[in-house]
Amino acid sequence: MKCPFCNHLHDKVVDSRETREGDTIRRRRECLGCERRFTTYERIDEVPYMVVKKDGRREKFDRQKVLGGLLKACEKRPVSTAKLADLVNLVESKVSDSPDREISTIDIGEFLMESLRELDKIAYVRFASVYRDFQDEQAFFNELKNLLKTKGG
Fold first, then answer.
1. Which site among 7, 29, 56, 96 is 20 to 30 Å from 138 CA-CA?
2. What is this structure's pTM?
3. Main-chain dihedrals φ then ψ at residue 50, nearest 5 degrees
């Protein structure tokens, strides 16, 4: 924080309090250079993380939606909820690390499929069947053949 009077880069916080609305923090600061006091206001960065859908639409990233898809794929499988929560955290990290705070559903889907392939093969196939939108049993069978090929190779 630069001092507005002398442009010194170091200061100390003398007093902090929330505004009445509770969405902003008011800080009273004292410049360590010229010793004058000034006030700053801090707000939480509210730019949402976005997901770019296959058709180009954008919507807010929804942890619960990702977790819900994983839970369905892992239903009655020996995969802990903690591992699934970790996967969702990794996806959220990918979004937050992105400079423009957005990620495509294709990137999310491919990442989740790779992760599920290592965790549980049945959950992987279930997830892939929905994500890749298999239209017939041949597409499903081809995915199984690829899975068996990579397992054996």
1. 56
2. 0.62
3. -120, 150
Both structure tokens of 32: 């360590």
List the chain residues with pLDDT less than 50.
153
CA distance 134 to 136: 6
E strand or H helix at 50: strand 50-52
DSSP single-letter state for residue 94: H
For residues 32 and 19, the answer to whether their CB atoms sit within 8 Å is no
105-119 helix and 63-73 helix, angle to the nearest 10 degrees: 40
Please, what sign has the CA dihedral across residues 115, 121, 127, 133? positive
Range list of H helices, 120-153: 121-131, 137-152
pLDDT in tens, 87-116: 999 988 888 888 888 889 989 988 998 899
